[in-house]
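Why do we bother with a discrete structure alphabet at all? Because it lets us treat a fold like text: something you can write down, compare, and reason about line by line. To make this less abstract, here is a complete entry for ATP-dependent protease subunit HslV. Read it the way you would read a sentence in a foreign language you are learning: slowly, and without expecting to understand everything at once.
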Amino acid sequence: MTKIRSTTVIAVKHNGQVAIGADGQATMGNTVVKTQVKKLRKLMDGKIMTGFAGSTADAFTLLERFEEKLNAYGGNMKRAAIELAKDWRTDRYLRKLESMMIVADAQEILILSGTGDVLEPDNGIATIGSGSMYAQSAATALKKHAPHLSAEEMVRESLGIAADICIYTNHSIMVETVK
């Protein structure tokens, strides 16, 4: 079976703003099969943003479960993330899902994985996907050397740099800020 690779997702918290962005590429083997995949979703009337990398069907399953947890815990993002991570790790069906998620609200950014991790980055930069290390390196440099940029500008520029380097990332970039 040919492995489907796709995407770079990045979230940056900077100067009181949180922005999340993703490219639009999905690749099967050595072929780009789609260039405009929408990998960001708004939840809770735009108060929470999510981005995903990995299997699309798996990501949508996790997104639905995360939204259920948000509703069950009154919109408390961190609690919903922890409860989803517990289920993801222990449920026989969910533990087979191959995807990662970034979730963000106006105060914090979290990375969720199938190993039960709920990680809050120390530096206000979270990345997942094939080009994540390129985007993270770029955002780290921008935060250090161009602090006058907004979080949205940092996300956009970091994704552009990742797209220049990573063959699984393209320049079809979507960026959202968290309200």
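What the structure line is telling us, in plain words: DSSP finds four helices and twelve strands in the chain. Helices lie at 56-72, 77-90, 132-145, 151-165.
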